Amino acid sequence: MANFDTVYLGIADLLKGLSYSESSQAVDFKDAPSTEYGNTFILKCLSGEMGQETIVDRFYDNQTWQVQIAISKSEQSDVVQLGEVHRKKDTILKTLDKPANWESFVKILKYKIWDVIEEPNYYILDIKLEVLDTYTY
User: Fold this and answer.
1) How many CB atoms lie under 10 A from the CB of residue 26?
2) Which residues are CB-neighbours of 121 under 8 A, at least 6 positions away?
3) Which domains does the chain have, with CATH numbers?
4) Pick from 57, 90, 97, 125: most CB atoms within 10 A?
5) pTM to 2 decimal places
């Protein structure tokens, strides 16, 4: 079925469908311009491990993917911005939870854990996804 590019593009397209674009940064938001806060994402494949036993012409790869979105932070609006983080999280999780959105590019996609990380100038919505990918040969 899939490979890195297929899974990456599939998840990225889901996020783009929610009006996010890819960040100019690949690893974190430390060097990203503040204009990217709230409307861009960083998507990374963090790890993988052999899933179910290998079948004649395929094997399953349990992967962990990470989606991060930075949201501006200021002392005057912390409550408002934290609320925005959680509203974004709710919308993203609903989209990722719908099998019709990902069945075309992976066997299983579900969120594993989410977290809000506080940085000096922004919050990071950090979502870890569990992906079951099928490699055929």
Assistant:
1) 9
2) 34, 72, 73
3) 4-136 (3.30.70.1700)
4) 125
5) 0.87
